[in-house]
Hints:
Layout: H1 2-17, H2 25-55, H3 60-63, H4 79-86, H5 89-120, H6 126-136, H7 145-154, H8 161-165, H9 172-183, H10 187-195, H11 200-211, H12 213-228, H13 232-237, H14 246-251, H15 262-297
Helix pairs in contact: 4-15, 5-9, 5-12, 6-9, 12-15
Amino acid sequence: xxxxxxxxxxxxxxxxxxxxxxxxxxxxxxxxxxxxxxxxxxxxxxxxxxxxxxxxxxxxxxxxxxxxxxxxxxxxxxxxxxxxxxxxxxxxxxxxxxxxxxxxxxxxxxxxxxxxxxxxxxxxxxxxxxxxxxxxxxxxxxxxxxxxxxxxxxxxxxxxxxxxxxxxxxxxxxxxxxxxxxxxxxxxxxxxxxxxxxxxxxxxxxxxxxxxxxxxxxxxxxxxxxxxxxxxxxxxxxxxxxxxxxxxxxxxxxxxxxxxxxxxxxxxxxxxxxxxxxxxxxxxxxxxxxxxxxxxxx
Length: 298
C-alpha cells in the first residue's frame, strides 16, 4: 500500500514538473498575420462607410476641409430632408421594394425548380443544357440590355413593373448554386421521401429546400443586393419619374455643373443602403442557424 502511494506521489510530482506546451512560432505568426489581415479588411470596408455616415451630417463647406474631419464639427440633420425632398424618394422606395421582392422570389423559384430538374429528372441533353446555363454566367449583363429593350418595346412593356422585373428572374447563378447543393444532399433521404409517396414538388419543397437553406438564403441575399442596387436597366426601361428606382434617385442629387451638395448625396446614399444592411443582418443570422442545423443533422 505504501509502495502504491509513493508511486502515485512520484507520478503527481512528475506531472506537476512537466512544462506546459508552447505554441510553435509558426502558429503564432500565422495567427498574428490572420488578425492583421482582418484589421486591414475591416478598415478597407469600414472607412468608406464611416466617411459616408460622417459626410451625411456635414455641411458642404466642412466636407472640403483639408485635412478631413471624421467627426462633424457642427453636425446637422438638414441633409436628410433636403435629399428626401429633392427627389420623390417615397415613390422610389415603393418601386424598388416591389421590383426587388417579386424579382428575388422569381429567382428563387426559377433557380430551385431548374436545379431540381437537372438533379432529379432524366431527359435528353441534360448535360448540354447545364453547360449552356454555365455559359450564360460568362455573358455580362450589359451585353443583353439593348436586345432586352428592343424585345420589351415590341411587347409594350416600357415603363412598367413587368418590364423592370422580368429580366431579373432567369438566373444561371442560382441554378448552379442550388444544383450543387442538391447534389450534396444524402441520397438516402431522397429515397426515403420517394418511398413515403412524395412527388416531385413535395420532395423539393419539404425535403430538399429545407436541407439547402444556407445556400438558399445566401443566394436570396445576393439577389436582393443585385436587384436593389441595379441602376442601368431601370434607367433604360423607364422614362417617367414615378417609375424610377432608388439608385436613379441618387443621380438626381448630382449637379452636372459641379455644384453638387455632397452632404445631401451622402444622405440619399444612406436611404439606399440602410434597408440592405437590415436585410443582411437578418439573413446573416439565418445563414448561421442553417449551417449549425445542417451540422447537427449531419
